[in-house]
Write a structure and sequence with these properties.
It is a single chain. By secondary structure, the chain is of the alpha/beta class. It has a single domain (about 5-230), classed as TIM Barrel (Alpha-Beta Barrel), CATH 3.20.20.70. About 40% of the residues lie in helices and about 15% in strands. It has 8 helices and 6 strands; from the N terminus they run H-E-H-E-H-E-H-E-H-E-H-H-E-H. The chain has helices spanning about 5-10, 30-40, 60-75, 90-100, 120-130, 150-160, 195-200, 215-230; strands spanning about 10-15, 45-50, 80-85, 105-110, 135-140, 205-210. Strand 4 (about 105-110), helix 5 and strand 5 form a beta-alpha-beta unit. It is globular and about 40 Å long.
C-alpha cells in the first residue's frame, strides 16, 4: 500500500493485538489468526503487527513470524502496520523485511536506549523512514516527546530521501493533519483525559491496546469524541 492510500485509511482506531503463545512459549500462530479474525469483524482502521504488545522484543525471527501471522489473519480487512525498533540497523532491517512480507506501513518505536537527544532521534527515525517506500509512523511515547518543529524536520528528511518521495504519516504533537503533504497525527494511545484535546485540533485516529479485549468500546470512544468536537 502506497503512503497516500494508507493515509486515506486513517480515521478511527488502530489496534495493538497481543501475540498468543503455546505452553512451551513458542508462537501460537493459529491462535493469533483466530484472534485477528474476531478482531477485524469490527471497523478498525488498522492493526499493528509485532508492536509493543506483540513479538517485537522477543527476536527478529519471531517478530517476522508474528507479522506474517497478523497479515494472514487480517486477510485484507484493514491495513497491517509492522512495528520496528531496537536500534538503528535492526529497525532498518525489520522495516525492509516487513515491506517484502507485504505489510502496509511501518511503525517505528523508540530506540532501546533512553534519552537520546533530538538530533540523534531525528537521525534514527529518518534512517528508518528512508529505508522503505511504505507509510511511516513515529511512535512518540515514554521519553520521546517531539516538538512540531522536530516533526517537520523529520518529514522533510524522509520526503527528500531517494526512497521517500511521498510524505509519510508521522505521529507527534502537531495538528497539520488534513493538509496535503504534511504529517498526519494520531492520538497517543487514546487516553481518556487527552482525547478531547487531541480531537479538538482535528485528530481523528488513535491507537488502542484496549481494542484487543474490547474493540467495540474503543470504536465507541472514537465516535463519541468525534461527535463532541464536531458540535463545537
Amino acid at each position: 500500500m502506497d503512503p497516500k492510500t494508507f493515509r486515506s485509511k486513517l480515521g478511527g482506531v488502530i489496534a495493538f493485538p497481543v501475540t498468543p503463545f503455546k505452553a512451551d512459549l513458542s508462537l501460537d500462530i493459529p491462535g493469533l489468526r483466530q484472534n485477528l479474525k474476531a478482531l477485524v469483524k469490527h471497523k478498525l482502521c488498522a492493526v499493528v503487527a509485532a508492536g509493543g504488545t506483540g513479538e517485537l522484543y522477543r527476536s527478529r525471527r519471531r517478530a517476522s513470524r508474528g507479522r506474517e501471522g497478523d497479515r494472514r489473519g487480517v486477510g485484507g480487512a484493514c491495513p497491517v502496520i509492522a512495528g520496528v525498533g531496537f536500534n538503528r540497523q535492526i529497525a532498518i532491517d525489520l522495516a525492509t523485511e516487513s515491506e517484502m512480507a507485504g505489510v502496509d506501513a511501518i511503525l517505528a518505536l523508540p530506540p532501546y536506549y533512553p534519552n537520546a537527544d533530538d538530533e540523534a532521534l531525528l537521525e534514527y527515525y529518518a534512517a528508518i523512514g528512508q529505508s522503505t517506500k511504505l507509510g511511516f509512523l513515529v511512535y512518540s511515547r515514554d521519553w520521546v516527546n517531539p516538538t512540531p518543529a522536530w516533526v517537520q524536520k523529520l518529514a522533510d528528511a524522509v520526503r527528500t530521501s531517494s526512497r521517500g518521495r511521498t510524505a509519510r504519516a508521522t505521529r507527534a504533537a502537531t495538528a497539520d493533519h488534513a493538509e496535503a503533504g504534511r504529517p498526519a497525527v494520531l492520538d497517543r494511545r487514546g487516553r481518556r483525559r487527552q482525547r478531547p484535546a487531541y480531537y479538538s485540533i482535528g485528530i481523528r485516529t488513535y491507537t488502542s491496546s484496549i481494542a484487543t479485549v474490547s474493540p467495540k468500546l474503543s470504536i465507541e470512544l472514537h465516535e463519541v469524541a468525534a461527535r463532541a468536537t464536531r458540535r463545537r
